[in-house]
Design goal:
Length: about 400
């Protein structure tokens, strides 16, 4: 949908303009929304669509180039590329305003090798998360202050929701949210305000199994793999779900010694998270520290993996959810049809992981299967959040089941 089509949809509800969708509704990827609050022009995330061989109009958000220099704020809910991948283009396209995010998100973005020229020199306002929902204020030039409130979304370390209430109106943006995480905490809004607009994560349809069912299937699969002495590979995103899967593996096998190979970048995240326990549920913080000790005892870097040496049940954790990297392909070539690759999230369009998942088991080695792990809200959960948070006009984003512009 073009900018003109979106603008034609734009209406005045109260004094707060209706949000404009540049991407992310009815699709997984390129989350990007625009809203005007008083004198502020705010872009909510700037993602790209992950995949291979896609035309530009399917990869990038449909934001007009003429709007970029006039933006006052870019809000980054978290660091995944489907929410930040368009940031380099915005910075090179004339953006002169403030970037706002948690400092953890800033660090993760700056660490991404695909964003080589982004640095702390940009006008970046970082927020310190105190372990619960908190208020913040920023000001741009001579404009009046912008007052916001944020809290953890339960999606990953650094991930924040955004709430803004002012004379002009009020709105909420959840970013990616999970209320079923085994590790991360999410903060309830706890406000009596009635919100004009809410842009709410709705990554899964109503048929999505509960997290407890997902965990049960994962454990049963791994137990069979252990008894059959298989090698099991988990391709995971660098941040977020990887730490949750490792915590589950710790719960399942903490009393066993087993060969465990972890991508070095994920190992660094596991280690740094020990100093970021405020993003985790209080009940899991002590367990996480024990898990890190277990990883230190059992784990080796993936680059040291030796197929000739591994005859027993072995776990391999890759920071490559699409199985596109050279190391991943070399590793898969050394596995047999006896072994398994377990995908826990949606693979990128055109990725090797997607291709392998759609092939018959006899056509690929090792076998590739999907065992979903929830890191977004389901339809019932997102509707519960919309009602609990008093949202008058919800816009649900992410899943293909979303309506193009659901009111």
């Amino acid at each position: 949908m073009s900018w003109l089509q979106y603008s034609a949809c734009k209406k005045e509800h109260d004094a707060l303009n209706r949000p404009v969708v540049f991407g992310g509704v009815g699709e997984y990827g390129r989350a990007c929304f625009y809203i005007e609050v008083g004198e502020y022009k705010i872009l909510l995330d700037a993602g790209i669509m992950k995949g291979k061989g896609l035309p530009d109009e399917e990869i990038y958000p449909l934001i007009p180039e003429s709007l970029i220099p006039s933006l006052d704020v870019i809000w980054l809910s978290h660091s995944h590329s489907d929410h930040t991948g368009f940031l380099p283009h915005l910075l090179s396209g004339g953006f002169q305003g403030k970037i706002i995010s948690s400092w953890e998100t800033q660090k993760q973005v700056l660490d991404r090798t695909e964003y080589p020229f982004i640095s702390e020199e940009y006008n970046w306002e970082t927020l310190d998360y105190p372990g619960k929902a908190f208020d913040w204020t920023i000001q741009s030039g001579d404009k009046p202050p912008l007052y916001g409130r944020s809290g953890a979304t339960g999606h990953m370390i650094g991930s924040l929701w955004l709430e803004i209430s002012c004379i002009e109106g009020s709105f909420i943006y959840t970013g990616d949210m999970s209320i079923e995480s085994v590790l991360y905490k999410w903060d309830d809004l706890q406000s009596e305000t009635k919100y004009n607009w809410g842009i709410i994560d709705q990554g899964y349809d109503a048929k999505r199994p509960k997290q407890t069912e997902n965990e049960r299937k994962l454990y049963a699969t791994l137990l069979r793999a252990k008894n059959s002495e298989k090698t099991v590979v988990f391709p995971l995103p660098k941040y977020g779900r990887s730490l949750e899967i490792l915590l589950l593996l710790f719960r399942y096998f903490k009393d066993d010694y087993l060969p465990l190979y972890i991508d070095l970048s994920i190992y660094k995240d596991v280690k740094s998270a020990v100093d970021q326990l405020e993003w985790m549920d209080k009940e899991t913080r002590e367990e996480y520290v024990k898990m890190f000790a277990w990883v230190q005892t059992n784990a080796e870097p993936v680059k040291n993996w030796d197929d000739e040496r591994q005859k027993d049940f072995t776990l391999i954790i890759l920071a490559d959810s699409g199985l596109e990297q050279k190391l991943s392909k070399q590793l898969l070539d050394n596995l047999s049809v006896h072994d398994e690759v377990i995908l826990t999230g949606n693979p990128g369009k055109g990725s090797y992981a997607e291709t392998a998942l759609n092939q018959k088991a006899t056509e690929v080695k090792p076998s590739v299967r999907m065992l979903p792990y929830n890191v977004h809200l389901t339809v019932p959960e997102s509707q519960m959040i919309a009602g609990r948070w008093n949202v008058r006009h919800p816009i649900y984003f992410h899943g293909k089941h979303n309506q193009p512009y659901l009111m």
